[in-house]
Amino acid sequence: NAGVTQTPKFQVLKTGQSMTLQCAQDMNHEYMSWYRQDPGMGLRLIHYSVGAGITDQGEVPNGYNVSRSTTEDFPLRLLSAAPSQTSVYFCASSVQGNSNQPQHFGDGTRLSIL
Amino acid sequence: AQKITQTQPGMFVQEKEAVTLDCTYDTSDQSYGLFWYKQPSSGEMIFLIYQGSYDEQNATEGRYSLNFQKARKSANLVISASQLGDSAMYFCAMRDPRGGYQKVTFGIGTKLQVIP
Fold first, then answer.
1. B99: closest CA among A97, A111, A56, A110?
2. What is residue A95's predicted lDDT score, i.e. its pLDDT?
């Protein structure tokens, strides 16, 4: 049972480069989210999706783009990488519901922007 | 605005002792869910325990319990009989009706170290 799979696990980019962080889940979860984790700041929501074709912005969406063409996949695109985007990125999924659904997290992608 | 406050950057506990990690929250919604996650040094996020805003009893999951005081807007995590493997970061989080309960707010975390 793979759960939530994130690739790559580590990545180093140069300022201005673009890249896509991949996230896939095999639990048929409707809800998927992207977070970034920075020291002393906890996890902050970047973008989220409540189903295929539906996405919305979270707390810190600037510089990131998402799409959700299938239930399984929710890629995060960095359009033009900046050093401020150096962070650990987590993808999470959960069953559609109300307040009682825990999120299942991937193992994270550690991204460094030089 | 929704907010989670964890005021203990770091905590130490002796092995086999109990420890309480504090979490207070701020929301104007009546329906919400509170969660605790554990993040060991390996980096993954592990769901520990859930408490719903309408739950009258405190949640328990094995050695984890949640001391829920709704009027004070606090949801403290209690770990009984601490083990060395409990050393980790612990995050309190709240799921509320924004975005169909999809927007989750996290606290900044508490680093727990269990001393042998």
1. A56
2. 87
